[in-house]
Amino acid sequence: MRAKHTKNKFSAASVFVLMVGDEGAVLVQIQKGTIIRRLFAQSPDPVHVKGIHEALENAPHSPITILFDVMDQSYVRQTLPPVSSFSVGKIINRRLSKDFSPDDIKGYLILDREKTGRKDWNYMMVSLANSSTLQKWILFITERPNPLKGMGLFPLEAQNFMKALEKFFLKGRDKDTPRFEWQVLVSHNKVGGFRQIVMRAGRLVFTRMAQPFGDSTPDVIAGNIEQEMINTLEYLKRLGLQDSSSLSISIICSDEIKRALDPRNIKAGEHHFLTPYEVASMLSLKDAAQPEDHFGDVVVSAFIAKQRRLILPLYTPYTKKLGLLFLLTKQAKISGALGAACLVLWIGMSVFSIFSTRQDIESLESKHRKLAEDLNKIKARSTMLPKSINLYSDIMTITQLFTKKQFDPLPFVGNLMSAFQNAGLAKTLHWSTSGEQNVTKSSDKREIKAEVELNLTFPHQIRAQLVDGIHQLMDRMKAGFPAYTINYPDAPGITSDNADIKTVIGDTENTAEKASGGQSDILKIEMSGPLDKPK
Amino acid sequence: MLTTSKDALLKKVLIKNVLTIAAVLAVVLGAAMYLSDYNDTVLAEQAAKQSQNNTTNAEMREIEATLGTQNEVAKYYDEYTKSHNTSFVIDRETIAGLLTSLRKTHHFANNLEVTVSSTTEVPDSGMGMKSGKMVRSNVHIMFNALTDNSVYNFIYDLQHKLPGVVVVSDLRLTKIDELSRTIVTQAVSRHSLTPMVKGELSFMWLGIRPAPEATPANGPK
Fold it and tell me: Does domain B92-212 have CATH number 3.30.70.60?
């Protein structure tokens, strides 16, 4: 309960790894890539786990991963006939419950599928005896408030660590350098002993644990490691190791043991004897180890903690249930937050819309006040108009119509007088419009017809003068009435092209000249128009 | 078998969390729905105001347009009546009176022979009369005048002093005598005028018969 008051405010940003072995457990707390705490407990008894208890209570939201490095774990490679990928899991689970005790913690890994032949499935069954110590550790962890990220087996999860080491060793070498088919890691772990892990072509094929003998000297331990390695290599021959030069061995141990190890005693392609401190530097695991450190648990755990997920997460029915409850709580919070965010967004949009619409309404209202004012003014103005406006409108329609039509004798006569000038005086005038006068806005097709008899007043005793005078008059007429057809039949002194010529030919001279003296001085002009066609 | 109260605790936490989240979401949802509803109301109000403004605007534009036309009409009428009779009611009695006066003004000799046909309604045919029906009468006048100019002035006066519109359809003028010393002497000694021109004039006399309900109380301006 005390822990609740001293919560690390960065607790959510840190993670825990508890590595459990037969000899105890190591807890590592990592925050932002740096190890900030490492604690050892030799058993899950309350007396021994006090520190771990406190550390976990101080960061109750930090997830914890449990890695098991106990002796009693088994790995069995199996093949399955080619079934569909959907049912393979079900079949393996059936096999697991048949082959192992119901209390065991078990799981499986599908390794690959044969490329040829029947295309069998290759898989590995994994089980861990659920001993009372293990149960106590699991119980201890599940009672803590921290979410359980998962439980994994150290040899399985260390595969990525081994790959990272290999990558480091290959750094700087030629790309064509052949990679070692076999990789062996020996880690001197505080919680168990000498954990040996063998990978072939990047896959776990074998693992075993060797226990050190009591308080031995480094030389004895080194000899012990060498002997165990020789035994292991012997066993590996049964698994297909033909040439020990295709083998790369890495041993993580204390500096004293490292110095005592003799590579000549272990037949391998290459040897890497490393202290935990060297490994931490190689893999940039900040503060994972000190130069004087003896054991490899912490660096490997720190590396595994940095992995996004476990290669094979294992569960007991109870941890599965807890995991589900944690997941549901998390999902509920996420869904709630998402739902709330959507609703808040909706609220925000509504509020924004309300405010902007309100502003718009205000501006509309002010516009309306102005409009109403204008409307009243304009209505007042319209009442001031004369009452007979409809009559006025009709008068305008009618008068404009007749102004447009231009059927008026007065302007016509004015034009006529201008054209006559002093050439003659009108004797008769007949001006008329053709057809019935209609009152309609449609175009008026009627014509004006006019006949004028003119008493010529210019000198016309000589025929040439007469003809000339008439022609001048007609030119003025045509200029004055460009849209009219103008005829002057029977004009004195002028014979039209289609009229007969009648004259008396005799002895008297200048008959023609004199004949003109007897000509009439009346000129008859006929006009019609205006015409539609352009003149 | 491992049994602790952790799962029960987690269940409790889960239920508590779910209930809290549900309660919070319900409250927020309620608020959101209320605001959304209110927003709809405000939007409807805005639409109503907008449509009200549109209606007022349209009404105003319509009045403005009518007013514009009517102003133009009033202006035209003012201008027109400066030189024409203000009335458009044609009346066969009116023409007799006016012709008597014009005969004197233009020194027409002898009597005027006037025929005024009965007034008939003119079909509207697209004219769109508002104040009443168009009516016409055909007028024929035979006259003797001193000069042709006095005839033209007579026609001008008819066009401007008669109510309605005068649309001439036929005009005949014949000179019957020349201006001579004898005529002038006669005019001076006998105080009588010898006509030198005789003529005939036909025109359509067009006016408006006001519709009974449209008859203005105070008559045309």
Answer: yes
